[in-house]
Design goal:
elongated, single chain, 4-stranded parallel beta sheet, alpha/beta
Length: 477
């Protein structure tokens, strides 16, 4: 079986192979701008490319995959938040406090979603030198020009600009919100560097500009991917909203700076997310952060476990739009808790050493689904089959394959204790089931009593009937 990935650049599924097998797979994904809590739409690319990262590590080995996801810490929204939260501090100090706090929040949230940390998480402010270098190259090669202390990329100098978005320059100009400015030769020309305003952070400028300045948005990713992955690399990912202008402009900058036919071999983009059938927005009152889903009862009247959110996300193919609904979360939460309980029971009763799981090959049906452009809905359907075989057929092979697949999908960790994950509501639900079982036992309805016991066991809950007539329960270890 071959790994096939849909390439936005060619609009086709292609057999994937690393550009340089000796260096392994090199992947770059656009990361967060750290000024506030990440919303659930931000979680989608993090989860999608985490699954791809896990799959690539499984196929090629951990030491043959390098995953880079940047952190943007130069942005007008960051400046505004810093001035608002720390009005009495120097702006640079305030910006540092905001970005450090927000980056910590982001890591906590995506960790809760079961996502691995990337191999490298470069910050934009740590790569200003690489940005200036790229800009100087572009000016020297005639692809960029200086005007009024700005440096701009001259889009008309690149013949196949728009190839990723599959739109001509005229079409893009007609549909884009472009800044009309006197320093532009063409409305579509985009900023590589701009002068810093008063009370804004600034750095020594490139291209002979004497005034301090700051980078444009697009040049950041070109600089960071070059620094950590090279002039060309294997996979570039992000949300579908980044295709134009961000990724289109990245391609233009990098290709022209290095005179290369490509920037990345494969471009992958996840689809949009909406909430209960509507576009998510603060004006509609349906804007939801990852943190709110994890620790408040704002959505659906309950707190949600991070990996239940992950499963809900993976039930839709990454390239398709996803409708984030309470009903879908409830279904995913029920399934995940059953699978989690079973995996914990298997780790105690079937599998001697869960840490050895990644060394075994994945079940062929799971691997086939994931190698077909990350078909996670199909992989989840196969997981249901493996679960049924493990429980009903008492198949040890299916049990092992089930737990292996959960790991590669990021739905199980070694250090999970289900007890530590139960909320007050979930504890009450277990207590209610125990009461129902006791009532069935009092009626000598042994069939119903056994059914409830098995249901609790599947959740990782062990029932103990004590000599004094009481019933207690605990989490399977």
């Amino acid at each position: 079986m071959e790994l096939r990935l849909y390439n936005t650049l060619t609009k086709e599924k292609e057999v994937f192979a690393p550009l340089d097998p000796a260096r392994g797979v090199r992947m770059y994904v656009c990361g967060p701008t750290v000024y506030d809590f990440a919303h659930i739409g931000n979680a989608r690319p993090v989860i999608v490319f985490d699954v791809l990262y896990r799959l690539l590590r499984h196929l090629y080995g951990k030491d043959k995959v390098k995953y880079v996801r940047n952190i943007t810490d130069v942005d007008d929204k960051i400046n505004a938040r810093a001035a608002q939260e720390y009005p009495n501090l120097p702006l640079n100090e305030a910006i540092r406090l905001v970005t450090e706090k927000t980056e910590k929040q982001f890591h906590e949230d995506v960790d809760a979603l079961g996502c691995l940390r990337p191999d490298v998480e470069p910050r934009a402010t740590e790569h200003i030198g690489e940005m200036r270098d790229l800009i100087d190259r572009l000016v020297k090669a005639g692809f960029a020009y200086v005007e009024q202390d700005h440096v701009l990329f001259e889009v008309g100098k690149m013949q196949d600009y728009g190839r990723l978005a599959r739109r001509s320059l005229d079409e893009m100009e007609a549909g884009a919100r472009v800044e009309v400015a006197p320093y532009k030769r063409n409305p579509m020309d985009f900023v590589l560097w701009k002068p810093s305003k008063p009370n804004e952070p600034g750095w020594p400028s490139p291209a002979g500009i004497k005034a301090p300045g700051r980078p444009g948005w697009h040049i950041e990713c070109s600089a960071m991917s070059w620094k950590h992955l090279g002039e060309t690399f294997d996979i570039h990912g992000g949300g579908i909203d980044l295709v134009f202008p961000h990724h289109e402009n990245e391609i233009a900058q990098s290709r022209c700076a290095f005179h290369a036919p490509i920037m990345a071999k494969t471009w992958m983009h996840n689809g949009f997310l909406q909430v209960e059938g509507e576009k998510m927005s603060k004006s509609l009152g349906n804007f939801i952060t990852i943190r709110e889903l994890l620790v408040t009862e704002k959505f659906g009247g309950q707190k949600w476990h991070g990996q239940a959110l992950r499963l809900a996300m993976l039930k839709t193919h990454y390239r398709q739009p996803i409708d984030w609904t309470v009903r879908a979360l409830e279904e995913a939460d029920k399934t995940w808790r059953e699978w989690q309980g079973l995996a914990i029971a298997l780790s105690a009763n079937v599998l001697e050493d869960m840490s050895k799981l990644p060394s075994r090959p994945l079940h062929p049906a799971i691997l086939k689904a994931l190698q077909d452009d990350l078909n996670t809905p199909l992989a989840i359907a196969e997981l249901h089959k493996l679960r049924n075989a493990a429980v009903h057929d008492h198949s040890k092979e299916s049990a092992v394959a089930f737990s292996d697949a959960l790991r590669v999908l990021g739905l199980f960790k070694d250090d999970y204790s289900l007890q530590s994950q139960l909320s007050d509501a979930e504890n009450k639900a277990v207590e209610q089931k125990v009461l129902e079982r006791n009532a069935a036992r009092a009626k000598k309805d042994w069939k119903e009593s056994d059914r409830i016991r098995d249901e609790l066991k599947a959740m990782g809950v062990v029932i103990k009937d004590n000599k004094d007539g009481t019933t207690s329960w605990e989490i399977a270890r």
